[in-house]
Design goal:
Oligomer: single chain
CATH architecture: 3-Layer(aba) Sandwich
Number of strands: 13
Order of helices and strands: EEEHEHEEEHEHEEHHEEEHHH
Radius of gyration: 18 Å
Strand order of the largest sheet: 5-4-1-8-9-10-11-12-13
CATH superfamily: Ribokinase
Strand content: 15-25%
Bound molecules: adenosine-5'-triphosphate, alpha-D-ribofuranose
Helix content: 25-40%
CATH class: Alpha Beta
Number of helices: 9
CATH topology: UDP-N-acetylmuramoyl-L-alanine:D-glutamate ligase
Shape: globular
Number of domains: 1
Length: 307
């Protein structure tokens, strides 16, 4: 049986500027080319989950504009349940301006727009979703106060909560106590815990910090180095797959959505699920763009079978 997942989060339209190198502050440079694609951390995570076979719901907000219509149609076209996506009259749909250099490095500037207008009132009418799901995933591109309320409700419905604290921000004090699994990258981890990640010992200390705040499972993504995981039983580092990255946009999002699609409800198979998630991300980084680069379950399985 496939996992049932809701993603509460952001929906953006991404514009990527392809450049030879990043401009210096105050400098103007020419972009070699420009492309546009569906994105947003929440939307990417939902697409990663549904493409890997999870029944997927989305809770979020778009503007009353062409971008919002485009994103609603894109998510519906993926088979995601969009009935809990609200349309906001006062704000435009979220957008992101991405600069991508010749080495595959990126810089991202996000306009939150309708994502930031999501309120706790927008959770009204989502009870049937909470009744149905096994996992709720959220990030930091929508207000944390809404995520905290949704995570609290999730815990009342025996739903496992996964927090991707991205982009890096300080954390709402209530959020960790309702979080079961946290998935920061190195920067986000250091900002929240105050512990710089220099070696395995510092990762173990970070996991202990999260455990002391009620988070039982820590998965720290380390880019091309892989993922450090810590569970109540075990910890370790699972290396990433060796591939040539051309655009890492949505690598973390793919990892989270794809991993969640494979997790047992009791979280007994974290190590196995994160190998799948990393295989999915390794395919994402070999393609341009956010959503267009996210693989299907069949593509991930084919890659795993080739290994
Ligand atoms: P982003 O913000 O770019 O989506 P992130 O910072 O949230 O990414 P990362 O830690 O960079 O997340 O990447 C998530 C996972 O994607 C890694 O744990 C790894 O499995 C995979 N990955 C990322 N970059 C590479 C790479 N260059 N080669 C292989 N796998 C990669
Ligand atoms: O994680 C990648 C995403 O971050 C992009 O799709 C962009 O929209 C920003 O939200």
């Amino acid at each position: 049986m496939s996992n049932k997942i809701a993603v509460l989060g952001s929906i953006n339209v991404d514009t990527t500027y392809h450049v030879e190198r990043f401009p210096q502050p105050g400098e103007t440079i020419s972009a070699l080319s420009k492309s546009s694609a569906a994105g947003g951390k929440g939307a990417n995570q939902a697409v990663a989950a549904v493409r890997s076979g999870a029944k997927t719901y989305f809770i979020g907000k778009v503007g009353d504009d062409n971008e919002g219509q485009f994103m609603l149609e894109s998510l519906k076209g993926e088979g995601i349940d969009t009935t809990c996506i609200r349309v906001d009259k006062g704000h435009g749909t979220g957008t992101a301006a991405i600069t991508l250099d010749a080495n595959g490095q990126n810089d991202i500037m996000v306009y939150g727009g309708a994502n930031q207008a999501l309120t706790i009132d927008d959770l009204t009418g989502t009870a049937s979703v909470f009744d149905d799901i096994d996992f709720l995933i959220s990030q930091f591109e929508t207000p944390q106060v809404v995520t905290a309320a949704a995570f609290k409700e999730a815990k009342e419905h025996d739903v496992t909560t996964i927090l991707n604290p991205a982009p890096a921000k300080t954390i709402h004090p209530d959020l960790l106590k309702y979080t079961d699994v946290i998935t920061p990258n190195e920067t986000e981890s250091a900002l929240i815990s105050g512990i710089e990640l220099t070696d395995e010992d510092s990762m173990v200390k970070t996991a202990q910090f999260f455990a002391d705040h009620g988070v039982r499972y820590t998965l720290i993504t380390l880019g091309s180095k892989g993922v450090f995981y810590s569970t109540p039983k075990d910890h370790g580092l699972v290396p990433a797959f060796k591939v040539k990255a051309v655009d890492t946009t949505a690598a973390g999002d793919t990892f989270i959505g794809a991993t969640a699609s494979q997790l047992d409800k009791n979280l007994d198979n974290v190590e196995e699920a994160l190998v799948y998630g990393q295989r999915a991300s390794s395919l994402t980084v070999q393609q341009m763009g956010a959503m267009p680069s996210i693989p299907t379950g069949d593509q991930v399985k084919a890659a795993l079978n080739r290994d």
